Structure formats: C-alpha cells, structure tokens
Amino acid sequence: MSCAEKQCLRARGFWGRSLLPNLENQEMSTIPVELPDHLQTYVDESAEQAGFASASEYIVALVAAASEKQGKFEQALIAGIKSGSAEPWTDDEWQAIRSRIVSKSQGK
C-alpha cells in the first residue's frame, strides 16, 4: 500500500472513523490470499462501493476493524472478571432482558 493510499484511508476512515492512524512508519507485509471467484467479486464490489482505492485497502480496513473489535471484547471480558463474583439474576432481571430483546426485534 503506497503512502498516498494510506493517507487516503486515514483521511476517509472506515465506518466514520480512521482505523489506520500510524502506518507511515510501519513496515508492511504482503500475504497472498486466494479467494473463490464469488468472494473476489464481493471484495472488489464492496471496496468500490465503500470508496476504497483498492481491494487491498479495503481488506486492511476490515482487518483493522476486526482487531479493534476483538480488543474491545477482550477488555469487556477482563472488566467482567475483575468486577467480582457473579450473582444469579432474579426473575425480574430476566424479564427486563426479554423485554429489551423483544422490543429491539420489533424495531421499537
């Protein structure tokens, strides 16, 4: 990925935010990836629709987003572990959870 492509990706961001803020000074590796034709078509079309300069740029943004999401998930797990002993939920708490899920599924 050229510096210009990195600059473009950082400026545009992905899902409304920049995911690649410090790539200028980082070594970049290349990994060959073989995709079935239908997935290659999907990647090419998705990259174009999202405004990326290349499929490579799109994939870098996807991997960065997945890495960020995994980090947040792991932080949440650690916070849960550190929060203390678990206590069983009451019937009222279960009902509140059910109500929220039903409400979300009905678009409320």
How would you sum up this structure, described in words?
By secondary structure, the protein is an all-alpha fold. It has one domain. The protein is 61% helix and 0% strand. The protein is built from 4 helices and no strands. Helix 2 packs across helix 3. The longest helix has 28 residues. It is elongated, with a radius of gyration of 20 Å.
Outline the secondary-structure elements:
Blueprint: H1 3-12, H2 37-49, H3 55-82, H4 91-105
Helix pairs in contact: 2-3
Strand content: under 5%
Class based on secondary structure composition and strand pairing: mainly alpha
Q: Which of globular, elongated, flat, extended, rod-shaped describes the shape?
A: elongated
Q: What oligomeric state do these chains adopt?
A: single chain
Tell me the span between the first and last alpha carbons.
Answer: 43 Å
**Regions with pLDDT < 50 over 5+ consecutive residues?**
none
The count of domains is: 1
The residue fraction in helices comes out at 55-70%
Largest sheet: none
Q: Tally the helices: what do you get?
A: 4
Total count of strands: 0
